[in-house]
Design a protein that fits this description.
By secondary structure, the chain is an alpha/beta fold. It folds into two domains: 10-159, Glycogen Phosphorylase B (Rossmann fold, 3-Layer(aba) Sandwich); 176-369, Rossmann fold, CATH 3.40.50. The chain has helices at 2-13, 26-30, 33-42, 57-60, 74-92, 106-115, 127-136, 149-153, 155-159, 175-187, 209-219, 234-240, 258-267, 277-284, 298-301, 356-369; strands at residues 17-22, 47-53, 69-72, 98-101, 119-123, 139-142, 194-197, 226-228, 249-251, 270-274, 288-292, 318-321, 324-327. It is globular and about 60 Å long. The relative contact order is 0.10.
Amino acid sequence: MFFLVRFYTKILKNSKKILIIIQRSNGDVLFSLALIKALYKHYKSPQIDLLVNDDTVSVARLLPNINSIYTFSYKKKRENRWKQEKDIIATVFRKYDLSINLTASDRSVLYALFASRKSISSIEQNNKKSWWKKIFLTHYYFFDSTRHILLNNLESLNILKIEHNNTQQSPDISDIIIAHVKDKLNKRGVQEFIIFHPSAQYNYKIYPQYLRNELLTKLNTLGVPILITGGGSQIDTEIKATIPNLDNIFNWTGETTLEEYFALSQLSLAYIGMDTLNMHIAASQNKRIFAIYGPTNLKMWSPWSNKSQKCAGLDKPLQNYDNITIFQADMPCVACGKAGCDDKHGKSECLDHIDPLVVFNEIKDWYQNAKL
């Protein structure tokens, strides 16, 4: 047994090819950056590959020190599940010294096991789901929904005894992209500005239109440009058509690539909007954040403060910590953690109970008193 421990330790210390598996959302992929950088430094420039869902690959491509990116497609799963599984397993089979899986699902654990004889993975605390994972994995840790996603993702570094700090990091954006975004701003006559991001991946996270427009009307009185941002999804397109035409409101929905958005966020004064990838981008850049939350679990998904290296731990109608302000409804069900009140991506009633005047007053107080 002692020999096996020494053998595993030696292999883990000399890992030159590493596969990281992240089968969740864009935010999860972004939050893997601190892990990737720590591994890259500790193992002295190893080959690091990623296995991610295909709808997160645009974020994955911005991460540094990545050699190859493999993708899993839910569309392919529906069309021919076993062919995709066979192809992925054949591609990664025993090609790595170490595999690290950040997702507790059966599928992702199997990928980790097939990819390397030395594997680390998050697993469910429910033993009925995870008993076999405990047997076959080299190391495991329990995925904890009461801890921030950043801390969950860094747990494998603790297992490997790799030094790190709990800092959310942002990909480096090229000077060319930053200059291009600055040029676009200059052509619109915009210098200092605040980002307002009204959309999210799902409708149940979105502030209702009538409250959003009331908030925008009030923000317009601050006299600072408010840039409305969004992508090209159906949700973004529908929101874009509802933005009021006001002097200081600039509708930039669909006008930036993801890389350009990172640059735009980096140049901004602050972020206002929903709990989505864009909010976490702002947090990684230490921006002033005003986030409107519905049913989302704050302990795992609130903006991370790099200054104090903490997140929100309680549900409150209004709370501030460091550079972050969070707004929630004053309702006993908040935050339920469901996908809408019906838990089927329907309406979240709690978002109707967040007063835009309360949101505006917090932003106004900051803008008028901040030394910008």
